[in-house]
Design a protein that fits this description.
The protein is built from 3 helices and 3 strands, in the order ααββαβ. The protein is α+β, with helices and mostly antiparallel strands. The radius of gyration is 20 Å and the shape is elongated.
């Protein structure tokens, strides 16, 4: 019977796991564009929301102030 110690040799550090996985993350950000062209970016959208849910929520909250748009982006965190 194998024990947890048998698997210790295969344990990876967080940095090693990110190297294998690529350290890539997909997030949702939203942008509010005012009539004068000024923009505000919101990059910390709740991670449990889908793109459509984020767009609907953002539009409902800020749409009266300007044009609201949400989008997905992928980034690589090389510091993990």
């Amino acid at each position: 019977m194998r024990t947890i110690r048998d698997f210790e040799a295969f344990k990876l550090e967080k940095k090693q796991m990110n190297a294998i996985a690529g350290g890539k993350y997909t997030k949702i950000a939203c942008r509010l564009t005012f009539a004068d062209g000024e923009e505000i970016f919101f990059s910390d959208v709740h991670p449990d929301l889908s793109l459509e849910e984020a767009q609907n929520s953002f539009q409902g909250s800020y749409g009266a102030l300007g044009e609201a748009e949400c989008f997905e982006f992928t980034y690589v965190d090389e510091h993990l």
